[in-house]
């Protein structure tokens, strides 16, 4: 039999809810919850920003073409992207937030408040963080939980999900959390751990925003993510960038 060239299979994400593999220029996503995939496919079709091309779908598998460029950055590491690239990410977020709302709602204020309370209790009960750190961040996080005018949000707009080439955004991936929500949540997730680029993102976004509320969302995002990361095999909470952010908050 003649030798065949086989691309290396790279495991991008793997836990008991979903897995993403990369084979050459194809991303293969396997998700136990087809509702998430339904949202991802519909949101990409609606979004006014570049998204990956859907190559095929056969539940529970979705195959997507790789985007050109590289991720804007990685949480816990300095970003090598230019200030202009960060501003372009802000501009892309603004385009999304100005688009018509998706038909499905996001989490309600009551749901968010309940989850915040549960996660704070877990962090203290399991000695993940000192009670004073949790209390301080919870007080900040609660200021984000106020009425807002809903917009089309990505819902998980972390730096790893925004791809750039030079100073241009080439696309945004992982739309399974897209919904109606607070615009400042997307901006907070994008700048989490990269506060030095908040000014660039806001400049690209093109309108005044309440930076204190973005910082409040930083605390809420981190408080509500640590347990999930710990329970899905991402290592010791002491090593999570989210825990470092919580410890650094004044």
TrEMBL record:
Q: By its UniProt entry, which SUPFAM superfamilies does this protein fall under?
A: Protein kinase-like (PK-like) (SSF56112)
Molecular function per GO? transferase activity
Q: Which InterPro entries match?
A: AGP_Transferase (IPR051678), Aminoglycoside_PTrfase (IPR002575), Kinase-like_dom_sf (IPR011009)
Q: Does the keyword Signal apply?
A: no
Superkingdom of origin: Bacteria
Q: Which residues form the Aminoglycoside phosphotransferase domain?
A: 43-205
Signal peptide start-end: none
Alphabetical UniProt keywords = Transferase
Keyword Transferase listed: yes
Q: What is this protein called?
A: Phosphotransferase family enzyme
What species was this sequence derived from? Micromonospora kangleipakensis
């Amino acid at each position: 039999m003649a030798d065949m060239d086989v691309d290396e299979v790279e495991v991008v994400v793997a836990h008991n809810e979903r897995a993403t593999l990369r084979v050459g220029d194809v991303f293969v996503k396997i998700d136990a919850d087809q509702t998430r995939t339904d949202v991802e496919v519909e949101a990409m079709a609606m979004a006014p920003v570049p998204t990956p091309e859907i190559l095929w779908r056969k539940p529970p598998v979705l195959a997507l073409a790789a985007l050109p460029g590289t991720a804007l950055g990685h949480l816990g590491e300095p970003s090598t992207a230019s200030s202009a690239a960060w501003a372009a990410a802000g501009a892309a977020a603004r385009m999304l937030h100005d688009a018509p709302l998706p038909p499905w709602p996001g989490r309600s204020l009551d749901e968010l408040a309940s989850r915040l309370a549960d996660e704070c209790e877990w962090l203290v009960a399991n000695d993940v963080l000192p009670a004073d750190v949790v209390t301080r961040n919870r007080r900040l996080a609660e200021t984000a939980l106020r009425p807002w005018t809903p917009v089309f949000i990505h819902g998980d707009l972390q730096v790893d999900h925004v791809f750039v080439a030079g100073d241009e955004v080439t696309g945004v991936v992982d739309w399974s959390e897209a919904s109606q929500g607070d615009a400042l949540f997307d901006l907070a997730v994008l700048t989490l751990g990269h506060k030095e680029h908040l000014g660039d993102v806001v400049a690209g976004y093109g309108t005044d925003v309440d930076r204190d509320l973005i910082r409040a969302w930083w605390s809420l995002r981190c408080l509500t993510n640590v347990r999930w990361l710990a329970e899905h095999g991402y290592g010791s909470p002491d090593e999570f960038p989210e825990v470092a952010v919580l410890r650094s908050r004044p």
